[in-house]
From TrEMBL:
Organism of this sequence: Albula glossodonta
Keywords from the named record: Aminoacyl-tRNA synthetase, ATP-binding, Cytoplasm, Hydrolase, Ligase, Magnesium, Metal-binding, Nucleotide-binding, Protein biosynthesis, Signal
Catalytic activity line of the entry: a phosphate monoester + H2O = an alcohol + phosphate
Location in or out of the cell: Cytoplasm
Needed co-factor(s): Fe cation
Enzyme Commission number: 3.1.3.2, 6.1.1.20
Protein name: Tartrate-resistant acid phosphatase type 5
GO molecular function term, any single one: acid phosphatase activity
Single GO cellular component term: cytoplasm
GO biological process, one term: translation
Length: 693
């Protein structure tokens, strides 16, 4: 079995997409059921040694592995294949230095279909494209089926103009209007005639993009109506140096311009249709990226690949139609723990953020969450410094230095010799900034860094991160902590093992909110009464008698307590009752008495759990008093012998009627309600409390 790829990947989108196909498709025999290809843009290296960036080299290695493990029949090169001025001829050494010496994997020895970018057009663009025209058509058949795929390759620079000709980097119209019109007419005719189930269009400029360059007005005006009218499956492009997926009007828009360096700018996010952006990745320190596309009889799967990126999926769709998707949660916590497990000695949170393609603060939050679980991980805060481009530096990296822009502004018919002091220039400023942008600032000598810093094109940034290692209780799986009570927690009971003859006081008493000095804590605190007393109590209950006016309790008398009181009891039985239901019933009960300020407090009452006490605020006394002595949810085991079933739950409570009366009528001393000193006029004047239905 072949070893697994050293990266995880993101399946971004699935589209459900002669009668000719390249001979490479025959290599797997009759078992082939799909067409597979790679899409890569903006991979053009550097115009001076070493002629390639670290990101381009990494991307090339990953493309080779992807082609080997996932399969690839050809490559779509989406423009800006040779920075910054293309190539001069078919013998230009850049073909070897930037292309052949970089994309060396045998699995990439497959056809490369090329469209030109704005930088390619500065040089000899026909030297790159071995066709009589700058735009052409590719047709393929999915093996073993009648399903066809058409790819229409556009020269968007020929159609819209060169963005490098303008200071703001936006094309302002074609250099040859007749050629642009001819290409547009060709495109419309081919789309109208296409019977392919999967109709793709590829070019360099993006139609929709949130990146530095943003939407291309020319394509929005001329190409967008055709894509919608002829129900194209997708438009694939580069130009913006990141990975994006957008969807609008049933058409997918794939931006794969991350072959040479990355940009995280989303400055044009408000210029794309609302809700169209489904995915974006462009961290400047990440390792580039590209797209792998597989077309089967029923669907087209677009997979963005980037080294060490965790996988998620967006699923579902139909041929040349809109599609349903659901992003799968990758789990930053689990990804972080897996990374810590694989790397001996620990990992840096900043590196993990780059590898996972998320903001560093997301990783910091994950570290804090794991720390709250105990010693799962150990995290030591550290500080490090690195160089970043300023806003002006980023603009120069994209468009060239101010000197180069002035030089490029010279018209083709030239200027007087007195105004033109050199015949050509090498934009070393931009080259240095691109090294920083590509995460290779270490290749700059200190003199270069200081010069760029002095020009305010470069700044040194101090980043605080965490060095994360395994803790004593390290595990790659995290048990989700409960954050809220559920009915199952509140109203369900589990019998404890009966063979535990010794149990800790915590479970026996503290967990039941039993006071420290409660008599029930002492197993020897048992009282015995004579048979005579027992018979007299029994007779009073069965036959009646004399004695206390109500319930008697040995209480210390004060403003809110008497030794005797009248008691109200209530019981509610139903299926699925919880303690919350009991709290609601009590709240309604007291509200109808005019008492609205209530508090519920957990309490211990023998043989009932859970139990609680109810307190109400007394405005006259300015304190909370207890009108309800005992409220509890009774489990089925308490009354199974009476009812013969175990499914119903009972809520019960006991109220003392005098304290609610005090609160209702604003009485501050309970003795004003009982005894020979009661103010009878107050009794006559106070209306009877009614419980409204």
């Amino acid at each position: 079995m072949a070893p697994p790829l050293p990266y995880l990947f993101l399946v971004l989108h699935i589209f459900p997409i002669i009668v000719c196909f390249p001979s490479s498709l025959l290599g797997d025999g009759c078992n082939r059921t799909s067409i597979r290809f790679l899409a890569l843009g903006d991979w053009g290296g550097l115009p001076r040694a070493p002629y390639s960036t670290h990101i381009e080299q990494t991307t090339a290695r990953e493309m080779g592995l992807a082609a080997q493990e996932m399969g690839a029949d050809f490559v779509l090169a989406l423009g800006d294949n040779f920075y910054f001025k293309g190539v001069r001829s078919v013998d230009d050494p850049r073909f070897q230095e930037t292309f052949e010496h970089v994309f060396t994997a045998p699995s990439l020895n497959i056809p490369w279909y090329v469209v030109a970018g704005n930088h390619d057009h500065i040089g000899n663009v026909t030297a790159q494209i071995a066709y009589s025209r700058h735009y052409y058509e590719l047709n393929f058949a999915v093996p073993g089926s009648g399903v066809t795929v058409t790819v229409l390759m556009l020269d968007t620079i020929l159609l819209c103009g060169n963005s490098d000709d303008q200071a703001d980097g936006q094309p302002r119209g074609p250099a040859n209007a007749l050629a642009a019109t001819s290409q547009l007419q060709w495109l419309q005719s081919r789309m109208a005639a296409s019977k392919a189930r999967f109709l793709l269009v590829a070019g360099h400029y993006p139609l929709w993009s949130v990146g530095v360059h943003g939407p291309t007005a020319c394509l929005v005006k001329d190409l967008h109506p055709l894509l919608v009218k002829y129900r194209a499956t997708a438009y694939i492009c580069g130009h913006d140096h990141n990975l994006q997926y957008l969807e609008e009007s049933g058409v997918g828009y794939v931006v794969s311009g991350a072959g040479n360096f990355m940009s995280d700018s989303t400055r044009h996010q408000k210029k794309v249709p609302p809700g169209s952006l489904k995915f974006f990745r462009g961290h400047p320190l990440s390792q580039g990226g590209f797209a792998h596309i597989e077309v089967t009889e029923e669907q087209m799967v677009v997979t963005f690949l980037q080294r060490h990126i965790p996988s998620s999926a967006l699923n579902g769709s139909k041929p040349r139609r809109t599609s349903d998707r659901s992003m799968a949660d990758t789990g930053v916590l689990e990804s972080l723990l897996q990374r810590v497990e694989k790397v001996d000695g620990g990992v840096d949170s900043q590196d993990v953020a780059v590898i996972l393609g998320v903001d560093h603060q997301v990783i910091v939050g994950a570290v804090k969450s794991l720390q709250s679980l105990g010693d799962v991980i150990e995290a030591e805060q550290r500080s490090s410094k690195h160089w970043e481009l300023t806003a002006e530096g980023g603009e120069i990296a994209e468009k060239g230095s101010h000197e180069a822009q002035v030089f490029n502004a010279i018209p083709e018919d030239g200027l007087p010799q007195s105004q033109l002091m050199v015949e050509s220039i090498e934009d070393t400023v931009r080259d240095k900034l691109l090294l920083v942008k590509g995460g290779q600032s270490s290749q700059l000598v200190e003199k270069d860094r200081n010069e760029l810093k002095k020009r305010k094109l470069l700044t040194e940034v101090t980043v605080k991160s965490y060095w994360i290692t395994k803790g004593g209780s390290f595990s790659t799986t995290i048990t989700k902590q409960e954050t809220e009570l559920t009915p199952e927690m509140i109203a369900r009971f589990t019998e404890m093992p009966t063979n535990n003859f010794i149990e800790s006081s915590f479970w026996n008493f503290d967990s039941l909110f039993q006071p420290q000095q409660h008599p029930a804590r002492d197993q020897h605190d048992t009282f015995f009464i004579s048979g005579d007393y027992l018979e007299r109590v029994k007779k009073v209950h069965s036959e009646g008698g004399y004695g206390s006016q109500g319930v008697f309790r040995n209480e210390t008398l004060d403003a809110t307590h008497l030794a005797e009181f009248h008691q109200i009891e209530g019981v509610v039985a139903d299926y699925g009752l919880t303690l919350g239901d009991l709290m609601g019933i009590l709240h309604q009960f007291f509200t109808k008495l005019g008492i609205t300020k209530l508090r519920f407090k957990p309490a211990f009452n023998p043989y009932t759990e859970p139990s609680m006490e109810v307190f109400s605020y007394h405005e006259g006394l300015k304190k909370w008093v207890e009108p309800s002595h005992n409220t509890q949810a009774l489990r089925a085991a308490h009354y199974i012998s009476l009812e013969g079933e175990t499914k119903r739950v009972k809520d019960g409570w006991i109220e003392e009627e005098r304290k609610p009366t005090m609160i209702k009528y604003g009485i501050n001393n309970i003795r004003e309600l009982v005894g020979h000193k009661v103010n009878l006029q107050m009794v006559y004047d106070s209306p009877i409390c009614r419980l409204d239905s």
